[in-house]
Design goal:
Chain lengths: ~190, ~170
């Protein structure tokens, strides 16, 4: 193995739990000052990073988390049942426009996105470009919690990421111009 | 005691105790991951709660194609990213960092606290993807394949992110 390969191996095995070096790597380090120096730098960095290795909740924090979570779960509102028709329609319209943006963006990110990057969420096998609003709406409207009001804040980024690939959501919204959005909203008609 | 898939099934069926057990099993890893990115215990605690709440609300959609913790890391990474973006990073490290930072170890000396502050600054100065990649790989020992799925990037991109993060941390912490 050459120095580049050795350094790649060293870097890939650089973990908080320590590096376990193969005999071949150890032998190389003994005879190569450059790789030895690289290894020493990593070891020194490991020492600097150590304080962050053992972050955990205190007993008090853990109890607070448990109790606030229980409270939040218990008070999870069933918003969909109480939302009046008008509000619901407005939300579906918003979902439609967002879906349209995604529709457009999905086409533009096809080069970077492959189906095997899709995680577990509805419509994994769906071709986004052929999707209807009924197909897409569940991405934005959770059964228990309507996430639409915060869609641009990122709450529903979680859903989007399942479909277009995590990390690409921001790129999508940043890459769609207001003219494109206007055009989509004008041209997309939806039966509610 | 049920294993993880069993707990998930029970939780989906509405068993809140099963979900509480899943929380207990994962809370320190998720809290640690978020804490490394936001450097504030209260914020990290809030985001940890939000992460588990989102998981609970979407549990029925979790198909167990990845581990539960990988799924949680993905939710936590998104929530943290949104928060940091909102705060434009300048509030990620609070003024009272030294007090806010570490309730676990009140015995730390001034020099150690300063070093930890520098470390947090170095970590939070990394671009989000590099930060997530580094934290998940170095501290949580996730495979690059898992990190790639979480971030929606290729495995080679995940490795490159890690290498870049290491390079920057070496420079900042030298």
């Amino acid at each position: 193995m050459n120095c580049r390969q050795i350094q790649e191996i060293l870097q890939e095995h650089f973990l908080a739990t320590g590096m376990e070096l193969a005999p071949e790597v150890k032998m190389h380090l003994e005879s190569c000052a450059e790789c030895r120096s690289f290894h020493e730098e990593l070891t020194a960095l490991g020492c600097r990073l150590a304080p962050m290795a053992e972050i955990s909740l205190t007993a008090e924090e853990s109890a607070r988390l448990e109790s606030s979570l229980q409270e939040a779960i218990a008070s999870s509102p069933h918003k969909r049942a109480s939302v009046d028709l008008k509000r619901k329609r407005a939300r579906i319209r918003l979902a439609t426009s967002i879906a349209a943006v995604v529709l457009l963006a999905a086409a533009s990110v096809t080069i970077d996105w492959s189906p095997d990057q899709v995680m577990q969420y509805p419509l994994d096998d769906l071709d986004f470009r052929g999707a209807t609003i009924e197909d897409i709406a569940p991405l934005f409207v959770n059964g228990e919690n309507d996430l639409l009001p915060t869609v641009f804040e990122g709450e529903s980024a979680f859903y989007l990421t399942q479909q277009v690939g995590p990390g690409q959501v921001d790129d999508i919204f940043e890459n769609v111009t207001s003219e494109e959005l206007d055009w989509l909203m004008k041209n997309l008609s939806v039966e509610i | 005691m049920l294993d993880e898939p069993g707990l998930i099934e029970q939780a989906i069926a509405g068993d809140k105790d099963a979900f509480a057990e899943l929380v207990r099993q994962n809370q320190n890893r998720i809290f640690g991951f978020i804490m490394r990115m936001v450097a504030d215990r209260e914020t990290a605690l809030d985001l940890t709660q939000e992460t588990f709440l989102a998981a609970y609300q979407n549990l029925a959609g979790f198909r167990q194609e990845s581990s539960f913790s990988t799924w949680l890391f993905q939710i936590a990474a998104n929530k943290t990213k949104n928060l940091i973006k909102k705060a434009h990073r300048e509030t990620a490290l609070p003024d009272d960092f030294e007090q806010a930072d570490d309730g676990n170890r009140p015995d730390r000396g001034f020099e150690q606290r300063q070093q930890e502050k520098l470390l947090h600054e170095a970590m939070t100065s990394l671009p989000h993807k590099q930060q997530v990649t580094f934290s998940l790989r170095y501290y949580d020992q996730l495979k690059f394949e898992e990190i790639a799925r979480i971030l929606g990037v290729s495995v080679s991109a995940a490795k490159t992110n890690f290498a870049e993060a290491v390079k920057k941390l070496k420079k900042r912490l030298a």
